[in-house]
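Checklist before submission:
- one chain only
- standard amino acids only
- sequence pasted in full

Submission:
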Amino acid sequence: MADYPTPPFPVQPQPMPGSTKRMDPAPDHGETSYRGSGRLAGMKAIITGGDSGIGRAVAIAYAREGADILISYLDEHEDAEDTKRIVEEAGRKAVLVAGDLQDTAHCRAIVEKAVSELGGIDILVNNAAHQATFASIEDILDEEWELTFKVNIHAMFYLTKAAVPHMKPGSSIVNTASVNADDPTPMLLAYATTKGAIQNFTAGLAQLLAEKGIRANAVAPGPIWTPLIPSTMPQEKVTQFGSQVPMKRPGQPVELATTYVMLADPMSSYVSGTMIGVTGGKPII
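Returned file contents:
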């Protein structure tokens, strides 16, 4: 078992959406530890927010399991190039697509790019998210509320709607929800509300797509050490991040990778409509 870092962590403010290279300690995405076994051989995957954090860990794992990847990201070009390099070192194709998921046309363009560059879509990982912290509801601007919904749930709908016509029986959709879907953090009101919507969207989507042979599931991460944390949370929360769960530490992105692989694996053919918690021992309802 790896000896992962525990709080307290250094104060480390960053501008949103944050940079992997400025994090202390550095997060583990599985760069040296993840070993594949061909579970996704020949498959084609879209991963939004695939440049860093959970998305990077999923991209590394999928590539080492044999999948080609389209990595969608906002504007974190350095992080995205690092992820692309690791995917290519695994012998797989990596396509980078920068842009804002608030734009419905951009969501559709991502799907079109995957079809043209990868030759199809077998897996869609809706992972990108926006979050910000606010002490009171009065502090949340209308524009902030709308931004959170556009990135976190509206884009998920547009991407899924565009991707499904290109997905064959046996394909899989994996959505990143959160423990906040069941246990909302007050200072993350907008973010937590979208995560509850993602849980419900996934449950309904799985039933809607069952006759097409397409599965849909969600992952509910607990506190995970990604650039979103130092760039969006109060520094007193950053220094103690992860101490609130039974394992007394944040999870590393690599610790979610096998869950995303399992949900995409064709061998998980009877797993659909569920949400799997990766929470450091904190139960989800």
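Reviewer check: The first helix runs from residue 53 to 64.
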